[in-house]
Specification:
heterodimer, A: 183 residues, mainly alpha, globular, disordered C terminus, B: 302 residues, 13 helices
Chain lengths: 183, 302
Amino acid sequence: MSDLGTALVFWPSAAIMLVTALYVFITSSMARAGLLLLAALGIEGLIFVALASEFLGFLQLLMMSGEMVIMVFFMVMFMPDPGGLMGMDMTHDKRRSAAVAAAVTVALAAVAVLTDWPARVVGDDAPDVRAIGFEVMGRSMVTFLFAAMTILFAMVGGVLLAKAGGRYGIGAPLGEARGEPGD
Amino acid sequence: MSTLTPLGVLAVALGGAGCVAVLECVVAGTRLAPATMARLASTTVRQPLRRPATYDSWLFHLAPGLLLIAAVMALATVPWAPGFRGVDFQAGVILFGGALAYVTPAVFMAGWGVGTPLGVVGGFRWLALMLAYAMPLAMVVTAVAAPAGSLRPSDIVEVQHAVPMALVQPLAFALWLPAIVAVCFLPPFDLPQADSELGGGAFAGYGGLDAAIVWLAQRVLLVAVSGMTAALFLSGWHGPLLPPAIWMAVKTVGVATLVLWAGRRLPRMEVDRTLALAWKVANPLAIVAIVIAGALTLAFYR
């Protein structure tokens, strides 16, 4: 794609992505929030494709669909008001959250601006799939494994905290104990 | 070719959906005159849009469109003949998987959007089912791509010029077939709508054009996955005597017929049993299939 074409796709897509990402925090319906986040990350995948990194773009589209759907699943399970119909305020500890959010934004922006990004332009026929395979199976393997284990522990931990009795290990109330003996 | 390609894909989508409708009548053994079918189609489309009592308007009305976009995108990656496909990407089969992955949020949006208890149950059943089946599907794609050394669908067709992949990797093929039926939410995996137990489930709230789009998208999905099965496992357009496109059409119709026939003869799977089967049997077997594919690639395809 030509530079102008890429720019014409990139900037509007980036703008739409930011707006959808903002609406994730405005809506109080958990289903809408998760699917809006999916929209934002899906558009990010399309931006990858526009920037000629088709493999990463398609992979982003593929993975984010599954992951955001899992997130919707978890949010609807855990939230007392998943539809956002009862007008519950879902924000807590506003001042400190705002401070943390601002600090993280500044840090990420600094990384994005200060990193010495490679300026090499890769041709259309570059075997990017192969290069990514060697990267993932080599240098980056520990990083990926660490991230994967962290996510897995977070999910298992979340379910453990949410199950009847919760983290205090209180037995389930009578009548809520489920499963047949030996199940 | 290049400017006509989108039109070609649309023609395959619409014509294919019509063929699937005819095929459904043939498999079911019912006779429907073309005039009757045309009347049914026109009454469906002209019916006013139904609005449920309480519903999430955005999700409810976006779901059929997203479903159709996902189906057409998946269809566009299928290589129909040498040189004829909608889009030709180096990572085409990943795009196929990526397009199918958007069927999951679309059906969930329909179920959640309609807001009835049975609709939400249908949507959540579907989420659980697809999370369990998306993984074997993606892993089987890897197993098929390994011998070709490429993720481009036409390269995978070319590597099968001698032996179809279904014979080389029967395990991968056996895992793939139920997964594609599940992706199309066709029986025996029609858990989100399940007419006899949820009464339409996730799609019960739709009427008029919305319902027509859902109907169309489901048929286009069947055409897409049948075509991809023919390309990835049944050596695509390779075959004696007949021209390539005819071979591809014959194999696609064969797979679609098998899927519809099986759907009429098998009882609907129970949700918990399906999930247990997917997580405890299909997923480990898919990993085994990848290992087998690696060994085969090292032994025969280098």
